[in-house]
Fold:
Amino acid sequence: MPTLKPLRKLAADANVILSAVAGKAALRVFLKEDIGFVTTQFNIDEVREYLHIVAEQYSLSEEVLESQLKLLPLKIYPRHFYEDFIPRAAKRLSGKDEDDAELLALAMKLHVPVWSNDNAFKHADIEMYTTAKLLKILTA
Structure:
C-alpha cells in the first residue's frame, strides 16, 4: 500500500471556508494544527459576499460568522502574489467556473493541493481534496 505524503499546506476554496465559519464539517479540518491553510483575497471577498445567506440558512448572525472567519488559521494572499499564474490557471479551468482561477493560480504558485468541494478543480491537473476525503485521511 503506497504511503501518502503528509499534508503540510492546503489552498482553501470559498465553499470550505463558508462551511467552516458555519461550524460544519470543514471546521474539523481547519482545527488540524499541523496543516497550513492559504487562500486568496478574492476567495475571502467571495466568502463575505455569501455570509448573509449562510447566516439565514443556519439561523446565525452575520457578526458571529465574520468573527469565525477572522479566527480561521488562514494566510490570505493578494492577487499580485500569484497573478503571473492566472492565465495558466484560467486555461486549465476553461469552460468551468472562472472564479476558481485565482485559487488555482495560488495553488500552482505555492505547489500545494486545492481543498474544495467544487468539481471544477477535478480536471485542472492539480492535486485536490474534498472535505470528506480530508476527514477520512486525517482521522485514519
